[in-house]
Amino acid sequence: MEPEHGMCARAIKHDGDDPNDNTVDYAAPLSDPIATLPRGYHLHPAWALTQPGWGLCILRCVLASLFTDSHFLFTPVNFMYHARMSNRDGEGREGMYCTDLDRQLMDMKGAVLRLGEDVEGAIARSLEALLERDRSLAATVIAGDDALDHATMRIQERGALLISLQQPAAGDLRAVLAALSIAEDLERMGDHAEGIARLLQLPQEPDARVCATLRALGTLARVQVRDALDAYRSTDVARARVVWQSDDAVDRLHTTLVATVLDRMNRVTGGEALTTDTYMLWVSHNLERIADRASNVCERVLFIATGERRPRLAS
Questions:
Q1: Contact 213, 145 (CB under 8 A)
Q2: In 3D, which of 210, 165, 140 has the Cα closest to residue 65?
Q3: DSSP letter at 82?
């Protein structure tokens, strides 16, 4: 079925199609007039300017090429390109034509995932530096926090430009807003990791039981972050729900550690021991907050897929 005049659609090449067939299958409306062209059709620039909606489309793409970090060759046929994408279910689909909006959304998601990988590494290094009293490793974590902040700002700038130039709607708009929110949560996780690294100046060795519990808590927090990012990568709602509900295990371990440290503080004397135990409480708090922000990432995955804000426990 052909779209009505003025509407645009995504042209999809199905497996088994005749390569010489120039007909177009129409899917959901999109913003780019080029998407309605038959497969393999090369558009003459002069003809493009005579068609409804082309002026705004050309202007938008020119602005995108000037003000984004994409290397866009301005020819009408480059309004779309043939690529291998993944559909909403994460299954491979061969031969889908990507619009400029699709490409920018994928680029933005990739930037968020790279930020997440860097943050996960910072979390691991910060806790290792603290428990092993490694000053060099702690300094690396502290110095690397600026890079995480700058990466977050670049994602925010990219999102603002994408919204203003592409004007995404419905699911695409949710994907942009979720990416911005996830990037902010990841940046705050990086701040928590930096905070742990700055607590290296312990006046004495921490209690062995406390160290063991902190290692376990740090491992759980990192698993939460990694699984949340995997759910975001594939927009896996089921996995996001599991990660969201697993946060209770982190909370219980944090509560156990706090009770252990407070009991120790009531029994020991000496300012150095109290200072060390207080630092351990701060570390536990930061790890628990990292896991909480991983749960926020899972909530954004649900928002992208369904528009809901929080998972239903009954699900």
A1: no
A2: 165
A3: E
**% of the chain residues with pLDDT over 90:** 46
pTM for this prediction: 0.68
- Only one residue has tokens 């409306």, namely 29
Residue 230: count other Cβ atoms within 10 Å of its Cβ. Answer: 16
List the structure tokens of 128: 């290792």
Amino acid in the structure at residue 274 = L
Which residue has better confidence, 145 or 89? 145
Task: Determine which of 7-21, 149-163, 238-252 has the lowest per-residue pLDDT on average.
Answer: 7-21
Q: What is the mean pLDDT of residues 222-251?
A: 93
> How many CB atoms are located within 10 Å of the residue 203 CB?
12
What is the set of domains in the chain, with CATH numbers? 9-98 (no CATH), 202-315 (1.20.58.220)
Q: Measure CA of the first residue to CA of the last residue in the chain; give whole Å.
A: 37
Given a cut of 90, is residue 58 above it in pLDDT?
Answer: no
Residue 10 main-chain phi, psi, to 5 deg = -90, 125
CA distance 180 to 109: 10
How many CA atoms does the CB half-sphere of 143 hold within 13 Å? 6
**CA–CA separation, 53 vs 59, rounded Å?**
10
- pLDDT reported for residue 13: 41
